[in-house]
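pasting for ref
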Amino acid sequence: MEYRAKSNPPETIQEHTESLLRCLEYFLSMYGDFFTENEKELLRLACETHDLGKVHPIFQEIVRGDRRRLEEYVPHGFFSGMFLNLADLKEKFSQEEVRALVTAIHYHHTRPDDYTDEIYRNHGEKYMKSAIEGYTGIPLERISTRYLRSRLFINSESQHLVNPSPSVWQKFILLKGLLNKMDYAASAHVSPEKVEIAAAGSLVTTIQKTFGKHLRPAQHFMAEHRQENVVVIAPTGSGKTEGALLWLDDHKGFYTLPMKVSANAIFKRICDKYDFKTTGLLHSDSVYEYLLRANEDNAETEESANDVLAKYSAVRSLAMPLTVSTVDQLFKFVFKALGTEIFAATLKYSRVIIDEMQMYDSKILAMLLCGLKTISDMGGKFAIITATLPPMIERILKEELDISFVAEAFPSDQRRHFVHLQPGDFDFDAIREAGKSKKVLVLCNTVKKAQEILAQLPGARLLHGRFIKRDRAILENEIQEFAHGTAPGIWISTQLVEASLDIDFDELHTEMCPVDSLLQRMGRCFRARNYDGTTPNVFVYPNERPKFYDEDLYKRSLDLLAKYTDRIFTEVEKIAYMNEVYDEEFIRGSAYYQTLMDSLQSFANLPPLKYDKAEADDLFRDIRNRTVIPIEIYEANRDEIDQAVLCSQQKKLSYHERLTNRQSVEEYTVSIQWNSKDMRFVDRRLPDTDIWLTRARYEFDSETHVGCGLLREKAPEPSNFL
């Protein structure tokens, strides 16, 4: 009998297995030095065995188109382990390694394991005994399900979740993650050399040619410590980015950032400035960025479209030699959800750069630190590069998580900021006057505040996160062009610009915020210039604290700022200011510190399978968004949007055409938090999509590019509103 593994095109179990093994051998030819001989052999066994459960007679009926007995079927992955000879394995491998192998095969598909051992035994005797005999030619006295007791996560008697030790867990995620990587490639009929794409040239050589022998101190330090985990604290303009790329040393790398906008900027910088075309971009909207770049290059032929999609597919499968990513795309494995193991497994033989760590709240920071612990234990390397970092983070890495690293701070001798604390609301008269001769940036803690003050500053421009994507892209380009130009004027924004845009203003007016954000905001003013003035160029207004800022950190940041005001605030003093605010003796009693430590403990004790992959996606950011189109925008572009939605669902069109149509719809959308006050205007969905229509008013002039964006007030409702 021909035992099939796939139906379209038809492929036997043996053919599919051989394809996996070819992918694995090519992979090991590139990265074999990162794995022990036992790990290599276990990976081969996982690839050889994972699909043998497909000899199941009902599966063979299904794969040939007969689905009459589908409801009787128990997924094949749960029976593949029956082909393992546990007695032989235990002579060659440790008990931990055998359990990791069994579990990786058992769960190689992300499916609920809600079957009891009795169901497995009965199903095995009824279906699998004869199937195994037919496939192997070896007669069986009875079916053996002993391997089920070797699963890591399920107590076979109580069916309760069990939390394995970190070392066993790491063995499992390595085997399952790389088994999935090979399986995805073989199932997609990807050639072995596309499982891991070789770098096009040397990024390190290119950077060294750019800088010659004149490396800056931070860059020299990172180049000297390429074989170690590193923590580098240095201000804007110190060359941290290039230093981190030198640290990669042509290893497979991931460069992570807090926001999509900043990831896009670094991706463009590496591709364009250093001509390193084998760089990937990975975030929730990265496929649209690829399409935009293709359009900018006039790549409109079907061949170029296929190239775009092939590159995006390689990025999604973590095959690129260098990938710029947001952290939520890589570190979700800390939730121990099935389907996330490929990320940790890939980071074992990679190097990961964490840029601007101070931008994360305490929960995400805990996830990140736990992820670095796993990566370090598995043999991967990391570099933290940041403008500011509380000393307690270094202590937690070293003492709580037992991670070794080298750390160095590189304060600049530049004198960039003269700070003044000004009680009360913004001094609009002073801002208007300064805007006549300087480039002035006004930063607010909330979108609502930014929208309110636009009316107080005629001629000012406004940017925040509540513009539809089309208009936000226009504004982001224009604020960067303005900031690099010489014309005076005023821009108003929010924390959106703290670390995401390369902008440089002459004067900053900002609401008070915790020290991390405050120092980041200062980096938008005199970004890489010395300030020799005798009057302030940074004005801080201690207005009412928003609820999303930790009360203790906000108050301590404000209190300690007083001694650095009405004079030049040096880069060395900024580090001292950060350290004082985050003095561990003080913040032990803060909600921030308690949340951080509780979260670290929670992740350490988290049992596998508690969350699924979709839940991990939501939990990583502790936020759920809803994509909406303002009704005014929808009505003005209704024919175009409806046609694009229709085309995006037409399977007769190519994937590229459907994706392009979906992108054109996305241009009219804005993302809002599902639990915010904005949701009271969202009650109707655009048919056959996950996009909703909102009755909130939207304000933006398409000619002047001035407006408040999405407002928290109701727009007039059209008579033909769906």
